[in-house]
Amino acid sequence: MSSLPPRPTLSQARAKLYELGYLKSRIERFVFHRALQSIAVLLLPVVFAGALAVSLAETAAVAASQFRYGESPRAVGLLFAHLYLAAVLPSAVFAAILFLAAGRSRRPGRGAAVFGLLAAAGALFLWIFGTLRLGPERPAAALVWGIPVSLASLLFGAAARATFLARAFAGSGRLPERPRRAILVFAVAGAFSVAAVLFATRREQVHPAPPLPRRRGEAVVVVGIDGLALDSPRARDEPIARRLSGAPAGWWETHPASPAEIWTDLATGVPAARHGVRALEWVRPLGVPALRPPSGASWYLRGVGLAVGTVARAPVSAWERRSLAFWEVAASAGLPALAVGWWASGPWPGAAVVENREVLARSASGIDADSVAIREFERRFEGQRVAALYLPGADILRSDPPARAVALRELAPFLDRWIARARLGEVVLAVVTADSHPPPGSHGRLFVFDGGILPGAGIRRIRPVDVAPSVLARAGIPAARDLAGRAITTLFRPGTLDPTTVATYGERIAPPATARPETDREYLEKLKSLGYLN
Amino acid sequence: MSDAVLSPGKRIRPLVALAAGELVRAKPVGPLAVAVAVEYVHAASLVLDDLPSMDNAVRRRGRAAIHLAYGVATAELAAVTLLSRAFEIVARESGIAAEVRARISGELAGAIGAYGCCGGQAADLAADAASVVLDDLEAIHARKTGALFVAAVRGGALAGKASEATLEALTLYARNLGLAFQITDDVLDVQGDPEHLGKDTHRDAHRANFATVLGIESSRALVGELLDTATAALSPFRRRGAVLADLAGYVRDRRS
């Protein structure tokens, strides 16, 4: 007699049916169906969403801080396209790491949440840090950009999380015990709040009317001699040093800085973090104005893009400068102003400007450069009230001491003429010497000839940013309180500096720059031939 | 043939086909053809199932079984005719693309053949009631009942050019629904009222079924879990899966 098979318990029956393919909706297999078909399909959403979030974050950082981008939708769009292409590779690397990690994950829920957070946080970090680093003074604009950046970061995080789960599921057939979707939303909202607080601490630039000069007096002439350090005993014997000795003077030392940066500090009265000029060379993605590379995109803008030709080098120009130079402030205040050969100088209403590139283009050597600059300066000086002249000869000829000595000797007659005019009270002469060699930083001096020389006036420590407010105050223009520098009253005739102040000179908003790639190339070549660039 | 097709039944399989077509937003004509074909196949399977050589049933859908009303030969001819008519309906439906019609025909043929009703019925006839275990029952009814549910839902969805992922989700739904339907059928066979059911009860007293192998309580519990699973498989479709989910609810509550 055969016995009946034992009746299975409910849990045994359930287990058996599960084994036979029932009682599991395997909804995840449906959800991830496409993703599981191929690795490419699985990873593409992460790559594309990542590129979107990263490039949007970088574009936002540039647009909110390098203000002309924010005013040009075309420039923003083209920059975004460049940065998107650039971001595909790092996003692909991230996706590959995610893929490997997910394949080994024992806790897919936690792993997916971590990778989702990493993705979103990475994009948000690029936005916040990049905006802060590039010099944000437009918190409102930066926060408006934060909205699309946050959404894109959320998308990137969600894509990373879903891909992680899909990959982990493909390996184990299990889904996380507890979904952690909300954590991404909270994280992005938190980051946005942090950004709002950080940006709110920044000052919104205002654009007040230029201040009017209070008094009219002598013309103020600033002569900058680059590559000349007068703080070594040997240097004191140089002909220039002998002519400058005895004048009230200030000296400074700064951290390492490029010539463009230090001479722009001198001209604007603010440090590079404010005026934005840090290097002799910027980059210009095709179809896009020159920019400082945002965080995370340098590898493309300074590396791959240059190699493949989608990015070109761009020499520094006034276009990148966000703060007014003293001759521009003077011109805005209605004083005739002149600038010849200064770094990062450019056209400005009311000012006669001979750009650095124009001087160098007409010079075959450092001696030539000084001659051209002096000739242009003296030809245009008459009638000017504030004038600036930059002489690069000594710096260019640094590696050729005999030629450098010749260049400095040829400066002597020029200085003699202007010191004589200063002694006669026709002009106030400020001579600035600066040198970035030897390392570790820039060091220089300011000599002031304001009427008769005061013998034994001595030398005191100043900062490069003090030069511009001093010159402006001597020209009768109230100093702006938001400048980093302060007028050095002890270097000038007592009572000649305007003691009044205004809140700010505002931001430098120049007319849109005309694209001059040909000139840029020539300028770059010239800078290289003169030893400025490698 | 009319008696076999038009006698009062639940029509759940054609409803499943129509609902699947609606889910994928198909034009009604395609899923309707599939629904009719599926019901013809089901009617044919009932006629064959009731034959003396098979279950030898007396009543079906509240009426005398077809072979008792018209004779065995006529019943057999009617069943074969219904099957061929089912394929004819699909093949002639110009509202469905030719390649899709071929695919739907394949689904129907699969639900009828060795891996469908016929294979399941053969296994059922060959099974020894004394030694049948859950695996055997599943193997029988996945083919006898489940296969046509699957064909119905896939056919209806195919008429609307459903994606493979959608088909996969709907197949999961139909498999779980089909097994739940069969277990419910077996429970009702043990507990139901013949008048209410419209067919013989305790037919399977000499054959093992889910109710006898698992017990009534376990069977009912599993029906609930299977239907929950079937409903869960519809969650990606959100509101579009509402009708199919309602049909699962109907199976949960059915008394006949």
What does this structure look like?
The complex is a heterodimer of chains A (534) and B (256). Chain A has helices at 10-19, 27-31, 33-37, 39-65, 67-70, 73-104, 108-133, 139-172, 182-200, 239-244, 259-268, 272-275, 298-308, 326-332, 356-361, 366-380, 393-396, 401-423, 467-474, 517-529, and strands spanning 219-226, 249-253, 281-285, 311-315, 337-340, 351-354, 386-391, 427-435, 443-449, 459-461, 479-480, 501-502. With 534 residues, chain A is of the alpha/beta class. An 8-stranded mixed sheet of chain A has the order 6-5-7-1-8-9-2-10, with helices on both faces. Chain A has a two-stranded antiparallel sheet with strand order 3-4. Chain B is an all-alpha fold and 256 residues long. A two-stranded antiparallel ribbon of chain B has the order 1-2. Chain B starts with a helix and ends with a helix. The interface between A and B is medium-sized, with 24 and 32 residues.
* Proportion of residues in extended strands of chain B: under 5%
Rounded radius of gyration of chain B (Å):
17 Å
Structural class of chain A: alpha/beta
Ranges of chain B where pLDDT stays below 50 over 5 or more residues in a row are none
> In what order do the strands lie side by side in the largest sheet of chain A?
6-5-7-1-8-9-2-10
Q: What is the helix content of chain A? A: 40-55%
Contiguous low-pLDDT stretches of chain A (5 residues minimum) are: none
Number of helices of chain A: 20
Structural class of chain B: mainly alpha
* Count of strand segments of chain B: 2
Largest interface: A-B, 24 and 32 residues
Beta strand count of chain A:
12
Q: Which outline of chain B best applies?
A: globular
Instruction: Summarize the main sheet of chain A.
Output: 8 strands, mixed
Beta-strand portion of chain A reads 5-15%
Task: Please count the helical segments of chain B.
Answer: 13
Ends distance of chain B: 23 Å
Mean pLDDT level of chain B: 89
Largest sheet of chain B: 2 strands, antiparallel
| Assembly of the depicted chains | heterodimer
